[in-house]
Amino acid sequence: MRSAAVPSESRLIELDEQESLELLQKHARVGRIAFVSGGKPALFPVNYMAEDDGIVFSTAQGTKLSALAGGAPVVFEVDDSTAMEHAGWSVLVEGTASEITDEAELDRLRRGPLKSWAVSAAEHWIRVTIESVSGRRIPAS
Amino acid sequence: MRSAAVPSESRLIELDEQESLELLQKHARVGRIAFVSGGKPALFPVNYMAEDDGIVFSTAQGTKLSALAGGAPVVFEVDDSTAMEHAGWSVLVEGTASEITDEAELDRLRRGPLKSWAVSAAEHWIRVTIESVSGRRIPAS
Which residues of chain B have a CB within 8 Å of the CB of A41? Predict the structure, then answer.
């Protein structure tokens, strides 16, 4: 057991990059972003939009923004599951977060379809570049 | 705007500890655990069980286990949402992860209802103590 990374009984199926990106772009609206803040883990759900060059979401002023605005390494995750069937999929993105400050781009985003569900006046926008993406599926048993 | 942690337009409703624990214990099967590994953020979905004294899940040998087994600070998150209504809830737990090594307890867990969806022979069990729990709800608009 000691050297086995994944036991042979695993039901996990690895998804390729294209499948993972499609799930990220089309099949989820809420994801979770994890980062390091003051040496400790931090994790928040966000409603997001996946564009060609990254993941975009808006947020209010606060701890989350402070930690993410300046180019922090992050992991972004989306998943969906069916408890009855013990089945589901998940996609993980590794990337770098930074605040969007370009006025033309901010204007485009503010007029776009993505509104924060929580904060109607959230004026700060974060982009996460997608440096790597991976996905896994557990089929219905 | 600069000093406002949450703008007044926020639709977020804070849940109390009891409501948050109930959502954690009864209304979700899949959560996400975030931790720091080698100075970088890490995040994985897990199917879990919430017991009185913490959150329990099983995992295979590997990076995740190595990072979590020895008493790592973690954030654990569950959520549910309805995209149509831009509504949902989330619960965040801050705690400490450690591997369960007590044989009587392992025996109880192995015979219990929680099976890893991914790995049928996952022999390592992690407990996350609940040091703080908080929750938020966004009502349907």
Answer: 34-36, 41-42, 73-75
